[in-house]
Amino acid sequence: MENTERIDFAEAFKKRTKKFVVDNIKFYRTLPKTEEAKIIGRQLLRSSSSVGANYRAACRARSKAEFHSKLSIVVEECDESIFWMEILVEAEIVREQEIAPIYKEGNEILKITSASRKTVSTKNK
Fold first, then answer.
1. pLDDT tens digits for 8-41?
2. Predicted structure pTM score
3. CATH number of the domain where residue 48 is located
4. Which of 55, 80, 95, 99 has the smallest count of CB within 10 Å of its CB?
């Protein structure tokens, strides 16, 4: 990938991860007002917002090691977001179709960032 393509991808992916955060905030607002929904919902808000913030930080990394470290946080937080979404469904707090779009996006972001992290790891060897 050429440098301009890499920059274009990074900018588009920054917007995508930011939208993931906003979509999770909007989803949180629709959760039932029960205590368990609030607790799990807040966990989802924390992890999903970390996805956007840490990808943005990764784009400003000063070294490959720092980029790898921030990208690793994105992978972990995205995986955690997916976990909380699964809990919301399996605990019957929300129906699967209510969360399906952000669940799908979370999985796509996870696949992309995991592959990117693996590429960076391979290049560092």
1. 999 999 999 999 999 999 999 999 999 999 999 9
2. 0.92
3. 1.20.1440.60
4. 95
